[in-house]
Amino acid sequence: MKFPNKVIPYQASILAKFPVLLVHLEQQDMKPADLYKKVKSKVSDVGEFLEILDCLYALGKIELNREGSALHYVG
User: With b meaning 16 or more CB within 10 Å and e meaning fewer, what string describes 37-61?
Assistant: First the structure.
C-alpha cells in the first residue's frame, strides 16, 4: 500500500483516491466490478483498487448491502 510519507507525496498515495470511489458510491450502491469499470482510468491496477476498498471498509466508510452483492456508502 502506498501511504504518504517522505518519499511518496499525498497525491500519489491511495488516500488521495478514496474520494474517487466514494463519489460514485454516494450516488448509488454498486457492485465492485461496476465500480471498477467507472474508476479504472484513475487507479493504477486492480490491486490498488482492492487496497482502496479494504481501507474504506476498515474505516467504516463502505459496507456490503444486505444481499452481499453491492457496496454501500455508509457516510
Answer: eeeeeebeeeeebebbbebbeeeeb
63, 30 Cβ separation under 8 angstroms = no
Let me know if residue 7 belongs to a domain.
Answer: yes
Number of domains observed in the structure of the chain: 1
The answer to whether position 70 is within a domain reads no
pTM for the predicted model, two decimal places:
0.89
CB 20 within 8 A of CB 42: yes
Q: Does the pLDDT value for residue 67 go beyond 90?
A: no
What does the alpha-carbon distance between residue 11 and residue 58 come to, in Å, rounded to a whole number? 21
The pLDDT confidence band at residue 75, using thresholds 50, 70 and 90, is confident
**Nine cell digits for residue 59:** 474505516
C-alpha cell recorded at residue 72: 454501500
